[in-house]
From TrEMBL:
Transmembrane parts of this sequence: 21-38, 58-76, 88-107, 113-132, 153-171, 200-221, 262-280, 325-345, 357-377, 397-422
Keyword match Metal-binding: no
Keywords, ordered alphabetically: Membrane, Transmembrane, Transmembrane helix, Transport
Chief location bin: membrane
Protein species of origin: Populus tomentosa
GO molecular function: nucleoside transmembrane transporter activity
Protein name: Equilibrative nucleotide transporter 3-like
Pfam families listed in its UniProt record: Nucleoside_tran
Subcellular location: Membrane
Length: 436
């Protein structure tokens, strides 16, 4: 069963495609962090190339200001931004930046030095900008959809870390004893010797996944019936950020719809006024019945007021109403990023696994447990429910604001991570090598 939306394509009233949407959201979450997690899991390789520059700490510190600054600008202007263009641009930037990392590695033949390191830092800054576009845009976009979409998206974020950690452990075991160290290994296939570059393998997989996310979000996700339903609902509540996504799905909102609504309400009022009946508002949240017939002037004002889109809560109101969520996210990521990944790579001391394996095992354990924890809220006896009652535009804005607090916590944690180096001799000028 469908209902017509103007003279354009129909909007579903009984949406389907929920399971497809959950799968697509999982892959979109995977693509949101797979490039960055690939860089983290080959951190031992960068410590071999740039032992004096604290790669894990410096690259993370470069990444976060760009992510936080861009996210602050986008969150402030969220209501005016085309969500479709924002998310597609973010995934394209992720793909292009990851491809550029491969170009830098090939152009320098895996060489170190300050030049390549500055180039990598510039690319990591682009990662930060892309992260702000994608993570805030996707969370805001799915905030007014079914909760399973958000759950799947965040599970995909964690899965990117688990996937890259598993691949890194496999390649480390296979290529660790090769003559070229962590960059190259030797594999014999059909009696032919073939050199394989594990960092390029990681970055190549990441680039492919990012391009896949571009296609999924641009062409498949907006055409799912359930996505059309939620976006049409958000548009009816005054959201202007979903118009391009609705257009991509073949649903067009007439540009003069508000004018037509005003004309209809005014005509209705004039008719009711002259036959002596009260004007009754049934639009939006206003359901006031006037006990007496209003004057012509006041009736016109009432009709015009009914035609206006519903007013949403301000960003300030949304933050104060959800300050507990915002502070929880901020403090969790302050704690996490003050330890991971810088402390894990540089300050864990000597162990039986050696400097090469121990950080990778710790990162893998963190990633796997992070993935498991994302599914804990789905356990029936522990099932969590989010707050309800927000309009589509408000849910979108709140999603962006919560991501802003998350990135603020990440940036604070990354800055605090440098405190571990205080008191260590020459700690700020050299890092522990992972090559031996």
């Amino acid at each position: 069963m469908t209902i017509a939306y103007g003279n354009h394509a129909p909007t579903p009233t009984r949406p389907g495609g929920k399971h497809k949407g959950i799968i697509v959201c999982w892959f979109l979450g995977l693509g949101s962090l797979v490039s960055w997690n690939s860089m983290l899991t080959i951190g031992d390789y960068y410590y071999c190339l740039f032992p004096k520059y604290h790669p894990s700490r410096v690259l993370t510190l470069v990444y976060q200001p760009f992510a936080l600054g861009t996210m602050a600008i986008l969150a402030y202007n969220e209501a005016k931004i085309n969500t479709r263009k924002r998310n597609v641009a973010g995934y394209i930037l992720f793909a292009a930046s990851t491809l550029m990392l491969m170009v830098v590695d090939l152009a320098t033949s895996g060489g170190g030095g300050i030049g390549p390191f500055i180039g990598i830092c510039a690319i990591v800054a682009a990662f930060g900008v892309a992260d702000a576009h994608v993570q805030g845009g996707m969370v805001g976009d799915m905030a007014f959809m079914c909760p399973e979409f958000k759950q799947s998206f965040f599970a995909g974020l964690a899965a990117s870390g688990a996937l890259t950690s598993a691949l890194r452990l496999i390649t480390k075991a296979a290529f660790d004893k090769s003559k070229d160290g962590p960059r190259k290994g030797v594999s014999h296939i059909d009696q032919f010797e073939k050199k394989i570059d594990p960092p390029l393998l990681f970055l190549g997989i990441s680039t492919f996944l990012e391009f896949l996310c571009v296609l999924l979000y641009a062409y498949l996700f907006p055409k799912l019936p359930i996505v059309k339903y939620y976006r049409s609902k958000a548009a009816s509540e005054g959201s202007k950020t979903v118009s391009a996504d609705l257009a991509a799905a073949g649903i067009q909102k007439p540009a003069n719809q508000e004018v037509l609504q005003l004309f209809f309400n005014l005509s209705l009022f004039v008719y009711l006024h002259f036959i002596g009946l009260p004007f009754i508002s049934h639009v939006g949240c206003s359901k006031k019945r006037y006990s007496s017939v209003p004057s012509l002037k006041s009736g016109f004002l009432q009709a015009a007021d009914v035609a206006k889109p519903l007013e949403r809560l301000s960003n300030k109101q949304l933050i104060f109403q959800n300050i507990d969520y915002a502070l929880d996210l901020y403090l969790i990521y302050v704690l996490t990023l003050s330890i991971f990944p810088g402390f894990v790579f540089e300050n864990t001391g000597k162990h039986k696994l050696g400097n090469k394996w121990y950080p990778l095992v710790l990162i893998a354990m963190y990633s796997v447990l992070d993935l498991i924890s994302r599914y804990i809220p789905l356990v029936p006896c522990l099932k969590l429910e989010s707050r309800n009652g927000l309009l589509g535009p408000e849910a979108n804005a709140l999603g962006n604001l919560l991501v802003l607090f998350l990135l603020g916590g990440v940036f604070s944690g990354v800055a605090l991570d440098w405190l571990w180096l205080i008191g260590q001799k020459k700690a700020f000028w050299s890092a522990k090598s992972a090559c031996n």
